[in-house]
Amino acid sequence: MLVRLRPVVQATRTADGLHLRGWASSCTLSGGSGLWKVWQRLAPQLEAGIPRASLEVPEGTAPAVRAAVSLILEQLWEHDMLVEMPSWDADAPAPQVAAWLESAAAEPVEAWRRLRAATVVVAGHGLLEDAAVRAVEAVGLKVQWSDGNRELVVSAGDLVVIADCGTGVGYVLPPTAGLSSVNAEITMRTAARLGVTGEPPEILAALIGSAAVHRLVCAVAGLPDPATGTYPMVLVAHADPLTATYHPLLHGAPPSDPWQALEALTDDELGPVDTPVFGPLPQVPANLATSGDALGIGTTADSARLNAALNALKTDGVIGIDETHARGAALRLAARHHRGEPADAHEWTGDPTAHRWWKALTARFGIPAVVRTERLAPGVHKAEISDGRHVLAWAVEATAADAVAFAALAATGYAQAGRTGTAHLNGAAPLKPADHPDWVTRQWHWLADVRDREERLQQAIAMLPGVRIRPLRLDPELRAAGLRAYR
């Protein structure tokens, strides 16, 4: 067993040390110009391979040199820039393949044994199939191929990678265990969303075919997939200009953080919802975004993006980014036309947040608005803002101040964007963790305490006469985003 420097590691001299870059991490060592001299002596030995026992600094070495060697080795180990492995036997891979395995694999020799034991089956047609076969042969693996598939299917044992490309765009799905109806559904959806049509140019076929083999080879060898994320990642490549980037695929269990799901939901390549953009929309006093024709309003850019994305989704009910959000939005809608006792104006006029958004609507945008606040039940308040002819916005919240604040914010957003109609916002949406540290209070950042009252508010609304809601079943893609819907 020899300890080797992974071939991918590069070193750069700095003013007082050196900078090391590996496969997936880097580090900077500081300690004087002598560090570089020590590296120049140590690196060739590590590249050739040293038994672990020989890594000890010889007795009698100057303390400064001993400390420098110890520091370098410690950082190399910590950042996975060294690999301990036996020498290659007679069945060694080609030099470039060996260098790749030594750079990326935890056990390069064992990874090569797995690859040599596999037979890669390539099923496809034309340039895409040819590119995949060449890539398999370049690694030095056994290959079988057959024509007939519209898309490219590369497999070894029960591991499968599916890819396809057309005239201008192509994709490579992540490895899966066997072919299934789910694979077919995802393949059709991905191809349709990207617009994969026509025959590919040779350069795009070469990129997609080799990338598909790369992902399969990594899976067979036990190496990490080239892309990792909250969701399975799809490689999407375009021909003009030639680019390749990874994008999340809405599949599987949703993440615990709904805001991560929003990124996949609105991904510019594979998301089912148009990516929210700010465009030429004014961003003061409210934040605004649009997803297609749908307008989103919020107190932050993220909340505006979320609101726009959900407004862009077409459904028979009310959609939320999580269970609490969807249920809260549906309960508010069910209670919208309930009448209650008029609430005292002082319940909201003294609140700085409600006052801020009311002032923004009436003073900044000059809307001749009036507000009516009602107590529908203990802990349930409704605010309705109108201009004397039309309802501009409404909200149902736990306090009159919150209800007025949300309604005024919604109406302000419409006025700011030049939209007409009846606007609605509510406090059921989750806050983005970065926007809500523990020390934030309502006085510092409104919304900080609103969702804390959501559970009690929903219980109170559900007890109102005639309020009934039921869950709706969404398609698997939206469920994978953590979205829920009620009617």
Descriptive notes:
- The chain contains 15 helices and 23 strands.
- With 487 residues, the chain is an alpha+beta fold.
- The chain folds into three domains: 84 residues, Outer Surface Protein A, domain 3 (Alpha-Beta Complex), CATH 3.90.930; 131 residues, no CATH class; 232 residues, no CATH class.
- Strands 6, 7, 8, 9, 10, 11, 12 and 13 form an eight-stranded mixed beta sheet that branches.
- A hairpin with a 2-residue loop joins strand 12 and strand 13.
- The chain starts with a strand and ends with a strand.
- The model has no long low-confidence stretch (mean pLDDT 93).
Describe what is shown at a glance.
The protein has three domains: 2-85, Alpha-Beta Complex (Outer Surface Protein A, domain 3); 118-248, no CATH class; 256-487, no CATH class. It is 37% helix and 23% strand. The chain has helices at residues 34-48, 63-78, 95-104, 108-117, 126-139, 181-194, 202-221, 258-265, 301-312, 323-335, 346-349, 352-364, 400-417, 454-462, 476-480, and strands at residues 2-5, 10-14, 17-21, 26-30, 82-85, 119-124, 142-147, 152-156, 159-165, 169-172, 176-177, 233-239, 242-248, 287-291, 294-298, 318-320, 341-342, 370-377, 380-386, 391-397, 423-424, 471-472, 484-486.
